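Exercise 7. Predict the joint structure of the components listed below.
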Amino acid sequence: MTQVAAPAVDTHCPYCALQCGMRLTGVRVEPREFPTNRGGLCQKGWTAGSLLTSPARLTTPLVRVDGELRPAPWDVALDLIAAKLTALRKSHGADSVAIFGGGGLTNEKSYLLGKFARVALGTSQIDYNGRFCMSSAAAAGIRAFGLDRGMPFPVSDLTSADAVLLIGANPAETMPPFVQHLTNAGRSGGLIVVDPRRTPTAEQATLHLQPRPGTDLALALGILHAVVADGLARTDYINARTTGFDAAWRIAAAWWPERVERVTGVAAADQRKAAAVLAAADKAYILTARGTEQHARGTDMVGAWINLALALGLPGKSGSGYGCLTGQGNGQGGREHGQKADQLPGYRKIDDPAAREYVAGVWGVDPDSLPGPGRSAYELLDALGTENGPRALMVFGSNVIVSAPRAGRVAERLSDLDFLVVADFVLSETAAQADVVLPVTQWAEEDGTMTNLEGRVLLRTKALDAPDGVRSDLEVLHGLAVRLGQPDGRFPVDPETVFTELRQASKGGVADYAGVTYDRLRAGEALHWPVPAEDHPGTPRVFLDRFAHPDGRARFAAVDHTGPAESLDDDFPLLATTGRVLQHYQSGAQTRLVEELLTAVPEVFVEVHPDTADRAGLTDGGMARVVSRRGEMTARVRHVSSMRTDTVFLPFHFAGDQRANLLTNPALDPTSRMPEFKVCAVRLEVS
Ligand code: SF4
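Solution:
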């Protein structure tokens, strides 16, 4: 019999927000030309096909019986969930059931999850792991520009930049194909990297500024001071396109570079050099990422970098700008369509009466039946199983036991729940704690749209059938909604049908997808939102004419340096910062299953300066116990002579007692509710 070859399907990588173009033939991955990756893929992308045949794949629901997870038919699992949730809602109210989503879910899933929470469950208790990823940049962007689109310009615009200031970003490891867009800036002597570590990205920089963790805001003030004091500020732009400069400058005026050097450790001359390089460039960009965003003052930290960009006249100008590098695959779309505690589709606010009325009309429900805003991600996890907190949690596309801050506390809260449901395609560490596990489809087994880091909506096309026994998240939500008494057609299972409804629900909102259709995406159109009509070409560059505030002007933020949320003392004398390695993605639930990636980086390590290690009695390759005020973990010691002597670095992809998040501080940003992942006080001991 002649075997029919699997068709080649053009799709996108399952991991990060660069959403590199790839071609999938069966499970064989090849890179393809796409503007963000220009034919490149990183090791994670190249090996992504093996996820599709992983022996760890779940293919049947699991239900906990006598303490053990046992296979069960779908109807049994869904009936059990519906019965439990119904009973809890009856006895403890609608908010006794909570939902936790993910920034890797497609737009369709994010949208339907938000609708399921508000309509089928009537709960306000929904948030998602993107709160831990993009929320500070989003809050700062909305404050400054009136709108949050991570990059308000296409990635390919960076290719002609003479100068790029990257803050807290390590794309050489997190999204390697992105680095090719920085080549011109590097050649022109204009690639400046701010990072407490000498990362592979910092190695390529013309200038590496290495501040003490938690002092980025002071550094931004010092560079802004140098810009203004050295006569480099674009006064014409400030007067014409912004407000609030005077208040911001009153603070920055007190942060002259020598004072900033004493706080940050970055030489005053280097601050002035950074100011001069950025000001001299014809085309300059300032880009932030998690290193400067994941702080208890993350919104203000980003605000300080935006202030610098505004003083230099960069945002809203062709060939220049400010942007943030989104992390998760659908980190942008995932924060627009309703899985966030305070949000309705189209980036609408859930406490806005007009937004509630409009979205309720699309959903065919009474606006008064929609709940108000709920708890943010960490606050939600922290409240689970407490007297006033949710009694049941459903998790989609997230592995909170590894990825949430103060992970030991989060695990405790999960164990105090009456009922935990996890939908995933493998038995993640969080799924292993669940009462019911639902095996769901993954990237190449379903159609769905993603919105990449430049606000471009992409169609990730189904390339192969899911294994028998697996259902899509949309089918799961439909099955549960019907069991909870919802009309059959209210929760569609076909992704394109869901997207058509999403378009309607987002219409007129900030993130307007009304004119995006599957057919236009299939035809390869580059549709960056807003796309308000089917004949609209999309908006690759926002802010060119005006910013999104009513007066059309951007806002300087009057922000000052305060430092990390917790201080060092004799018991905890070092600063720990966390981040990623090239081979692993987020909690590692997927990449730790890929043999090639796990072999390359099989365990957690702690990077430490040899002198610091020596003082703690630690040898290169030995084991260290890293202890914070919240917990401890063990890691293999790596001597790294470029580390600051006051700082250690830990990747956060590993489970059990290798979890960096056992240490991290859940102190929250007052605006974004972002936890302080990027700095906490620790000590090192011999393990
Ligand atoms: Fe591209 Fe990111 Fe996938 Fe790597 S992980 S191939 S950079 S989308």
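Discussion. The mean pLDDT is 96.
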